[in-house]
Amino acid sequence: MADPALDIRDLRKSFGALRATDGVTLDLRPGEIHALIGPNGAGKSTLIAQIAGGLRPDSGSVRLFGRDVTALGAPARARLGLARSFQISSLAGEFSALRNVMLAIQARAGSSFRFLRPTQGDRRLTEPAMAALARVGLADRAAVPAALLSHGERRRLELALALAMEPKLFLLDEPMAGLGAEGSRELTGFLSELRREAPILLVEHDMDAVFALADRISVLEAGRVIASGSPAEIRADAGARRAYLGDSS
């Protein structure tokens, strides 16, 4: 079996008396989608922040592609190939869809953000940016300011930004949030294909999408992983059903 792309071991994080992450161990293997689910307040956001590098754990380790990155911040982890999309949009609303993706490519290349005016004539930026937009179905909306895009289009634009980073691993935080049924179906199809390029750690509340996509599912409750396995195993796990799947039997 191939080494994990992401390997988390005994991760712990407390805020005063609150144990937000309590000994979490999980991994993400090449070519798979591993979904992380749990009720509100389970500690998903705190865990994701530690994986992405925005929050330092109290103890435990995070390894990317065999390298211990526990002490590295988010920019360094991004340079190693981790791309994150956010539950709440982080787009620059006044900039066009194309300009948003061009800025992501600038960031990947290490360009200074003192210069926030990538030129439309710079093919080194425009060509890969348009390619990313085309992949998420936004090529014809390239000139539209992000603030004027629909909610579903903004979610797709965030994925285009992630694609532009040429990642080796995707960390997707509720990509289905706010999408209608049709939008969720379209995005589910896209993510199913995307796993062929890079594995995906998926945090999601849409259970239809989770069970359609995930190779493995881990259930988080009160900062701890209480169940982990295939979708069939999670459906059969009484603790997982009580914690999140709405089954009180």
Features:
Rossmann fold; alpha/beta; 4-stranded antiparallel sheet; 2 domains; 6-stranded mixed sheet; 36% helix; globular; 249 residues; single chain
Your description of this structure?
This protein has 249 residues and is of the alpha/beta class. It folds into 2 domains: 1-81 and 167-249, Rossmann fold (3-Layer(aba) Sandwich), CATH 3.40.50; 91-166, no CATH class. It has 9 helices and 10 strands. The strands form 2 sheets. Strands 6-7-8-3-9-10 form a 6-stranded mixed sheet, sandwiched between helices. A 4-stranded antiparallel sheet has the order 2-1-4-5, with helices on one face. A hairpin with a 2-residue loop joins strand 4 and strand 5. The longest helix is centred in the middle third of the chain and has 14 residues, at 151-164. It is globular. It starts with 5 loop residues before the first strand and ends with a helix. The relative contact order is 0.18.
What is the element layout, followed by pairings?
Layout: E1 6-15, E2 18-28, E3 33-37, H1 44-52, E4 59-64, E5 67-68, H2 74-79, E6 82-85, H3 97-109, H4 123-135, H5 151-164, E7 169-173, H6 181-194, E8 200-203, H7 207-213, E9 216-221, E10 224-229, H8 231-236, H9 238-245
Parallel strand pairs: 3-8, 3-9, 6-7, 7-8
Antiparallel strand pairs: 1-2, 1-4, 4-5, 9-10
Helix pairs in contact: 3-4, 3-5, 4-5
